[in-house]
Give the backbone structure.
Amino acid sequence: MLKTRVIPVAAAVLAPMLFASGNWLIGSSDEGGEPSVHVNQAGASPSGPSLPSSLPSGSPSGSRRNAPMSPAEREAADRAAVEVAWASFWTVHLNLEGAYPPAQWHARGAEVAVDPIKAQVLRTSAADLRDGVVGYGAVVPRPYWQQPIAGKTSAVMRDCQDASRAGSMIQKTGQKLTVGVARSNIRAHFVKGGDGKWRVRQIEYLLDEGC
């Protein structure tokens, strides 16, 4: 039987054993001109980092916007929007303690996630703040799809992510506590809200399935 683990993702940035507890950072590839999601350190702008655009590149405009989309076009657009939502989630998650005051955490989390992940992020970020631990670095996502969205308001995407240049550290001293590994197979679950935005609902680490 395939072994999976549902991870408290907020703890994913900062616990000492990345693989054992599912602690991972995520960004985007530095290769091929793709943007990277980096961790803000102390002194980050109070306004916080910019989130990726909610509209994928190549979205219809002008008269084309009013034309009905074919099933293939809709599938491609939905997948692109989910991948943008995935990057947005990690932008907020990685920068939460360093870029936003605690009073803004709930609103920021609600922009990119729903429970149970949202609650996990907020709960563990509060513990990290008390402990003086923050994330560092950036990771490389390698999203891939095994099942279609097919016009539904839920989606499941996989990612073979590289966290070998990211982990957690003590904020005051910069002492690194953890470092990730190069390949970790993830199954991420998303829901589409009434506002049309995709948000992360749950994340599973496929411990017995390489990628």
